[in-house]
Amino acid sequence: MTPEDTSPAILVVDTVDAALAVRRHLPDEAAVEQVAAASAVRDAVADGPTFDCVVVTGTDPDGEWRRVPDAVAVLQPTVPVVLATPSGGERLAAAAVEADVVAYAPLDSESGSAPDLAAAVDDAIRAGRSPAGGRPTVDDYRTLVENAGDPMYVLDAAGRLVLCNEAMAARVGEDVAEIVGSDVGRFTTPESVAAADEALAGLLSNGASHATVEIELLTAADDSVPCEVSLAPVRDADGRFAGSVGVVRDIGDRKRREEALERQNERLERFAGVVSHDLRNPMEVARGRLELARETGADHHFDRVAGALDRMETIVDDLLALASQGIAVRETEPVSLDRIAREAWALVDTGDAVLTVTTDHRVSADPSRLQQLFENLFRNSVEHGSPTDGSEFVASETPVSVRVGLVYRGEGVPDGFYVADDGPGIPADRRESVFEYGTSGTDEGTGLGLAIVKDVVDAHGWRIRVADGQWPGERTRVDEPTRRSDGSGAPAGADDPTGTGARFEITGVSVCD
Predict the structure, then answer these.
(1) Are 491 and 479 in contact (CB under 8 A)?
(2) What does the alpha-carbon distance between residue 354 and residue 241 come to, in Å, rounded to a whole number?
(3) For 492-495, which contacts have Cβ atoms below 8 Å and span 24 or more sequence positions?
(4) CA nearest 405: which of 362, 442, 357, 368?
(5) Does residue 513 form part of some domain?
(6) H or E stretch including 379?
(7) Is there a domain that residue 413 lies in?
(8) Nearest 5 degrees, angle CA 251-CA 269-CA 380?
């Protein structure tokens, strides 16, 4: 310090009983005043001397210490605040940026040493008497960046990376030495840069200390990670804008929770629609037929009542199935396509329809939900492909045949499986909408079956599309046995039917063997 700085006045605000360690590392000649709570800061600043620096202790990112910078700024806005902490934690450095402290100095909780505190206080006092008015400069953030548990960086005014910590480099999948000096566009999208620039412009115009912006972080592996950045402007020694500092938090889990909540809300709306409309129709039929049966004594009215009750049961079953969807699959196991398809087929009223399975491969899936997928696809094939008076499509004159097999990509690599039938098929202009809630090709359908299928696919992270069901053109292994629902076997493709039909292809699936 220069001679005129020999007796700095320092206020210590000790919120975590670390004052002894702090005072040990303050200048011997300093005039030190101490208070034990943030609530006492205003009185100390108002009644005491003009302080050269305030040192506050804290450990919790949302702790009492966060009130101190604001309290100091009210009465002595140019006085710098330094945060000293015996336990940094993951997010304390990020909180320090948001609270607009000029430096972050860890304390050794066992030895009581604080090698960075004396330098941080000295630098803060010098900065506080400069035109920057105590605001943090690029150099002030070096300790913050190095000690932050979350990814943290400093950009210059041109948007080039000046500082970053190991956590930041690891998040983008590169080394610190490789990315320092790079343009920010290397790590994020143009839309994210524009959002951050707009936030910084707002901070510079309104004088606020920080802002929070959502961005997409780009990694060396070409992944896009949703993140939240706490931004603050950085100034040079003359108080001019010199760049920005940011603390990055991965909000992927939060985004997924938000999306799951949105899907859940959509489901609630669907349930309300089904209960208020779809269930009301058969209920009114049952009520009306019961009244007629009482009046006339004719037994045939009870058949209509029974049919209405069956319809209501189908709707309730589909609603319960839909309620279980939308939750991401967290545990999978190898599941035999042949076994799970047969089990699903046995639980569906398939009439005279015939099932053929052309593979005995296993896939990585949740067995229960995979079976539910097959049940709904089988029910769809049977209801739309077999002779019926309720279909909006032209029905087959013979019982439908259904086939399950593998889908291949590239050089014969299995990428998933399909369920195909030789029924009337699905018009090309309807193939995207069939998975929407409420879409049904029959008067008797609930419009939930294929919506459930899509939810199962999404929950596994798979993909699904509708194609023509022309079986002769499918790619199957010539040495793969054909397994029919009656247990017989025949070479694959030996008795392929020639109908067009519909083919649901589920891809992005891990085929085990």
Answers:
(1) no
(2) 74
(3) 492/358, 492/405
(4) 357
(5) no
(6) helix 367-385
(7) yes
(8) 100
The residue behind tokens 């001019």 is 240
What's the chain's length in residues? Answer: 513
CB atoms within 10 A of CB 260: 13
Read off the tokens for 109: 């909780």
Same domain, 214 and 204: yes
pLDDT digit string (tens) for the chain, length 513 residues: 444 446 788 999 988 777 777 888 787 788 888 888 888 888 888 777 788 889 998 888 888 888 888 888 777 777 888 888 877 655 777 777 777 787 777 776 554 445 567 777 887 777 665 544 455 666 667 767 876 777 889 998 889 999 998 989 999 999 998 899 999 999 899 999 999 999 998 888 887 778 889 999 999 988 899 999 988 888 776 777 888 988 898 998 888 888 878 877 776 776 666 566 557 667 888 888 899 999 998 888 898 888 888 877 876 776 676 565 556 677 899 999 999 999 889 878 788 899 999 999 999 998 888 988 998 899 888 887 655 444 444 445 678 899 999 999 877 889 999 999 988 877 777 777 677 765 555 445 445 778 878 888 988 899 999 887 655 444 433 333 334 444 444 333 333 434 468 899 999 999 987
Q: Which of 250, 272, 295 is the last residue of a domain?
A: 250
Strands 152-156 and 241-250: antiparallel
CB neighbour class for 62 (10 Å; exposed up to 12, middle 13-18, buried from 19): exposed
Q: Say how many domains are in the chain.
A: 4
C-beta separation of 163 from 182 below 8 A = no
Contacts of 192 (CB under 8 A, 6+ apart): 213, 215, 216, 217
Return the axis-axis angle of helices 449-460 and 300-323, rounded to nearest 10°: 20
CA dihedral 432, 436, 441, 443 (to 10 degrees): -170
Cβ atoms within 10 Å, residue 58: 27
Contact by Cβ (8 Å): 511, 411? no
H helices within 274-359, ranges in order? 280-296, 300-323, 337-346
The one-letter amino acid at 131: P
Domain of 363, in residue numbers: 330-507
Torsion on CA atoms 389, 391, 396, 397, rounded to nearest 10: 0
Cross-strand bridge partners of residue 33: 11
Q: Cβ neighbours of residue 345 under 8 Å, at least 6 residues apart?
A: 355, 374, 378, 485
Residue 133 and residue 228 in one domain: no
Q: What is the CATH number of the domain that holds 457?
A: 3.30.565.10
**In angstroms, rounded to a whole number, what is the distance separating the alpha carbons of residues 498 and 496?**
6
DSSP for residue 392: S
